[in-house]
Specification:
The two termini are 16 Å apart. The protein has nine helices and five strands. Strands 2-3-1-4-5 form a five-stranded parallel beta sheet, sandwiched between helices. The protein has 222 residues and is an alpha/beta fold. The protein has one domain: P-loop containing nucleotide triphosphate hydrolases (Rossmann fold), CATH 3.40.50.300. The site of cytidine-5'-monophosphate has 14 residues, from helix 2, helix 4 and helix 8.
Length: 222
């Protein structure tokens, strides 16, 4: 089973999904796919094409090329918003589904996103839902985006407040949309990364993966 193991890692923005999923893939020797990058690349293309915010971006999704995923401008606040907007369109999601499924189907994979355990791989044997408090996530995202050098504490706190408001709005939109909303699968195991560093989150995830594999083996031989 581990030869084709699919591990679904879902959760809200900046919860540490990407860090965990990448480390997990390396530890398990599986390919890794950051599915948020697909929506970011479609959002980027929609911005470049001058589409209005809720314009149909399915053409951009169908035309996606590998080089689009290598662009260096996919993690700006503008692209955060555009990605979330295009991700609410069922036709965009449909255009990206086969690629995501194909990626994990033959050799297994670790995929992170919002709907991996609910829609993309609903039968994945391991599903993790990674969360952290809104403040911890905002601080994490702010550190990724900005250099704190020279900022006084009040300015830093105000800047984190602004990032927090953006994250909260994006999570609310991702959770409220009709098409594949952000939510934990019923059989997902939750990991709260608030008080855990990346190493501890990885150890916890590996423990869960091993337990699930052992359960699946026991069920096969029963
Ligand atoms: O994970 P990341 O923050 O890069 O994702 C950007 C946006 O892409 C999310 O806010 C969400 O709207 C969308 N997304 C999605 N489904 C996924 C992955 C990302 O809707 N599986």
């Amino acid at each position: 089973m581990s030869a084709r193991l699919v591990v679904a890692v879902d959760g809200p923005a900046a919860a540490g999904k990407g860090t965990l999923a990448r480390a997990l893939a390396a530890a398990l020797d599986l390919p890794y796919l950051d599915t948020g990058l697909l929506y970011r690349a479609v959002g980027r293309r929609a911005l470049d094409a001058g589409l209005p915010p809720s314009g149909d971006a399915s053409g951009q999704a169908r035309a996606l090329q590998p080089a689009d995923l290598l662009r260096r401008d996919l993690r700006t606040p503008e692209v955060d918003r555009a990605a979330s907007l295009v991700a609410s369109q069922p036709s965009v999601r449909a255009a990206l589904l086969a690629f995501q499924r194909g990626f994990g189907a033959s050799h297994g994979a670790v995929l992170d996103g919002r709907d991996i355990g609910t829609v993309v791989f609903p039968d994945a044997p391991v599903k993790l839902f990674v969360t952290a408090s809104l403040r911890a996530r905002a601080e994490r995202r702010w550190r990724q985006l900005h250099d704190a050098t020279g900022l006084d504490p009040a300015a830093q706190s105000a800047a984190i407040d602004a990032v927090q408001a953006e994250l909260q709005a994006r999570d609310a939109a991702d959770a409220a949309r009709q098409a594949a909303p952000l939510r934990a699968a019923a059989d997902a195991v939750w990991i709260d990364s608030d008080r855990l560093d990346a190493g501890a989150v990885l150890r916890e995830a590996l423990r869960i993966v091993e337990a699930r594999i052992a359960e699946a083996r026991a069920a096969e031989t029963a």
